[in-house]
Amino acid sequence: MSLRILEKRSPTQPSTSEGSSNDMNGTALRAQKVLAVLYSGGKYGARNPRMLGTTEQALGLGDYLKSKGHTLVVTDDKEGADSTFQKEIVDADILITTPFHPGYATRDVISKAKNLKLCITAGVGSDHIDLNAANERKITVAEVSGSNVVSVAEHVVMTMLCLVRNFVPAHEQIRAGDWNVAKVAQDAYDIEGKVIGTIGAGRIGQRVLRRLQPFDPKQLYYYDYTELPNEIAKDIKVERITDLKEFLGKLDILTINCPLHEQTKGMINKETIGWMKKGSWIVNTARGAICDADAIAEAVNSGHLLGYGGDVWPVQPAPANMPWRTMAHPNSEGDKFNVGSAMTPHYSGTTLDAQKRYADGTKTILENYLNHKPQDPQNLICEGGDYATKAYGAGKRA
Ligand code: NAD
Question: Where on this chain does NAD(+) bind (predicted)?
Answer without folding.
Answer: 203-204, 224, 259-263, 285, 311, 346-349
